[in-house]
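# step 3/5: fold
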Amino acid sequence: MRIPFLAIALATITITSATPAAGPINLRQLDQERLIDAGERSGKLTRAEANALNADQRSIRRLENRMRARHGGHLTRQDLRILHARQRQAHRNLLREKNDGQRGRNHLDI
């Protein structure tokens, strides 16, 4: 009885300790995709700007997938530093495009 319980507890600890590394990257990615969508719907981003920003997010996601494949599904600290730097740059690009004065079509139903 003790061995299966111990195995389950150990597996749970292993799984929960592996998820925080993936969490912030994926949440940030999702947040930026939402900001891009909201900017396009509000008219602060043109369609071309939104497409370029979405392409940047796709390239970051592909880079993360390659890094995970290289390290057996995990991200090293160096990988996390690289991904966070890319996300910071993508966020700066997003803010610059949203506030550059170009306007797209407003798709909000108010």
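# step 4/5: annotate
Residues 8 and 14 are 10 Å apart (CA to CA).
# step 5/5: archive (pending)
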